[in-house]
Each structure stands twice: as C-alpha cells, then as structure tokens.
Amino acid sequence: MSKMFIENRKRFIELMENGSIAVFDSGQAPHITTDQFYPYSPNRSFYYLTGLNVENCRLMIIKNKKQFLTFLFVEETTEYMRKWVGEKMSKETASETSGIVSNRVFYLSEFDGIFRNAMLSSGGFGFEPPSILYLDLYRYKVNVKPYALSQFKDLIEQFKELRIVNANGQLAYLRMFKNEFEIKQISSAISITNVGLNRVMKELKNRSNESQIAADFLHEITLNGSEGKSFNTIAASGKNATVLHYEDNNAELKQGNLLLCDLGALYQNYAADISRTYPISGVFSKRQKDLYAIVLKANKMTIDYVKPGITWKDLNAYAKSILIKECKAIGLIESDEEITKYYTHSIGHFLGLDVHDIGIYNKELLEGMVITIEPGLYIKEEGIGIRIEDNILITKEGCINLSESIIKEIEDIEKYMK
Questions:
Q1: Residue 140, SS3?
Q2: Does an H or E element contain 164, and which?
Q3: For the chain, what is the total number of helices (H) and then of strands (E)?
Q4: Whose CA is closest to 400, among 284, 308, 280?
C-alpha cells in the first residue's frame, strides 16, 4: 500500500524545480459551535502524497538538483488526549503507511525548527537554502483566499526570500491519472452507491418526503462499508429537479412526479458520483418517457464517443448536438440556441479523491482518467428535471463504464420498482 504513496511523491518531486521546498497540511475538522466539530476529512492532496487519514499532520519535501529529502510531522499524544479522545497515530504507523523512513518522521511541534534548519545559509541539510516554496493554493472561488496562505502565514512572512509557487498545478496533472488501486477504490464506491440506489427504488413507494430518500441512501451505504456520502445528496422531486444543485431535500413526494437523485458513496476517500431519475409512482408517464429517452440516448451515445485524444470541448459539443436533435424532433425547441434553456451545464468532470476532482480541462483526455458523463434536461414549466450520470474510465482504445451495473433503462427501472 505504501508503495503507491511513495510513487505519488516521486512523480510530484520530478515536477518540482531544483532549489525548492514543498509543504502540505492534512487539515483540521472545522468548528461548528461550543465544543462541537464537523467530521474530519483529509486534505485530498495531502492524502494523495502520504496515505494518512489523520488531522494535524504535515509533509515537507526539499529538492536540490539530484537530491531530495522528505519529512513527515504528526501530532504527539498528550495525557489529556489519551483520556478524552485516545491515542493519535504513532510515528511508527505513520512511517509504515506513508513509506517515509522512520528517522524522517517527527512530531508536529518540531516542524518550525526543521523548516528553519532547511533555510540556513550554511545549508542545514547539506543543500543550498531553497528559493522556492510550493504550497497547495487551490481555491474554489476566485475571490477566496487559499487556505495554505493562512496556514503558513508565519513562514511566508519570516522567509520573504521564498518565491511562492502553486503546487496545485502539478497535483492537478498527477491526480488526473488513476492507477489500478485507485480504480478499484472508485469501483467499490460505485458498487456501494448501486446498493443505495436499489434501496431508494425499493422504498420510494413508502416515502412521503425527499428527506426520507436521502436518509435511506445514507443508511444503506453506511451499512455496506462506506464512510458516508461523497457529497451532499440531491433528492429532488418535481420542479426541484430543475435546480441543478438542489440540496434542501425537504419537499413532499407527489405521485406523478419524477425524483432526480444525484449522489455517491465515499470509499476510503474515493468518490462515486451517480445520477438517476425515477418515477415516484413507479411508472413513467408518456411525456416523462419521451424526455427520459432523449437524456438516456445522449448519455449512452456520449459514453460510446469517449476515447483517448478527444477533449472536454469535443464531448460537450457532441452531447449537446444529440440533445438539440432529439429536442427538435419532439418540438421542445426550434433553434439550436434554445437548448440552453433546458440544458445549462457541461457534460461532466474528473472524478477521484474529490467528486469534482482537480484536473486540467483544456487538455486531451487520456488513458487512466476517470470522468463523469451526465447529460440532462430541465423543463421548469413542466416541473420535470432529468439527469443520468455514469462514471467512466478511459482506456487505451476507448472507455469502460464503471457504473454499468446501475440500471437506467426505462423498462428495468419500472420492473425493479414494481
């Protein structure tokens, strides 16, 4: 297991400039109120480089010409911790999990001193002092300050000679390519999601509120080995399904409406992301069938179109062309431009340690990448929202639908729900 993380670090180090130092933090559980905290979830890039699933840890890598040094810092257990929360991960376990040699694993309290030693003009580790500092400066919004700038504020202010470089560029490239182990983890998350969706279909006739659907899914995937949901479940019925990221999940389920489920299980930090649309009554109406068939056709044909060498732009254009043609055929639209009224998002995204995994979207798709294909139609005036999403592994000559076993044909859904 540690071999994978050793290899991940090796690939990252190859992309580092000479005379540089990189620092990553595992993150901490955010505070809710008084003495309550949100569940901890590791910084995914830190996990990718170390395999550690614990908070208050740091990774430091120094590279100079042909040499590099790797250090790991873990939290030391105090007597207070032992009484109230138990033992923290030991240095020995951290070394074994990450593959970082034991004499390079220290307590977090030693981080500042070792970092300063690396910056000594005399060369604290026999290296020239680094001139570049790599930090993961990922931000989910342009106007949001990257967390690492706050986390390492003291270092940045103390060592102003360091040029800050965003390590997210290198990590976005590396994390696009999944190895055999990662594909297995994603496949496990998908299999558990399938079990959860079967529970949803089975119980839908007995439920009266969207919140019960979200509860059914979470209960079932937890029973089957998931750490929980990979993102906030969308259980959107009727007109709520026309809101792309609807998360309220508190409306009444009404016979005759559709239920759009966009959800996924989390398995050992790897995510599934599946969308399916079901008739609450167990049977699609004629109108619902016609619209569902269009989305299903776009889903299946776009999956067949996936292969190495195409781009996201190609995929988006191809999927949209199918939706345009079929929507014209039923009289939903007259001109190509009108499709944007009913289909407003892109065809998919990268999938992995994050649901919307980091990656480079202006490059060709290549073997080893895992992506989603998720066409949809959202007709607000009719209270109908339909999305069908699968998780796709790009292979040497084409692709494999990792979620193929999750039923999506109209007849199969109606038969299962009956």
A1: coil
A2: strand 163-166
A3: 13, 19
A4: 308
Cα→Cα distances 61→18, 85, 99, 158, 310, Å: 11, 30, 14, 19, 35
pLDDT tens profile 290-301: 999 999 999 999
Coil, helix or strand for 29?
Answer: coil
Angstrom distances, CA of residue 33 to CA of 37, 85, 147: 7, 18, 21
Tell me, what's the pLDDT at 122?
A: 65
The structure tokens listed for 182 are: 């990662």
Interatomic CA distance for residues 282 and 339, integer angstroms? 29
H helix or E strand, kind and range, residue 277: strand 274-279
Nearest 5°: the CA angle 260, 265, 266 is 145
Record the pTM. 0.96
- The 3-state DSSP class for residue 391 equals strand
pLDDT for 16-36, tens place per residue? 999 999 999 999 999 999 989
From CA 167, how far away is CA 409, in angstroms rounded?
43
Element (DSSP H or E) covering residue 387: strand 384-387
pLDDT band at 262 (very low <50, low <70, confident <90, very high): very high
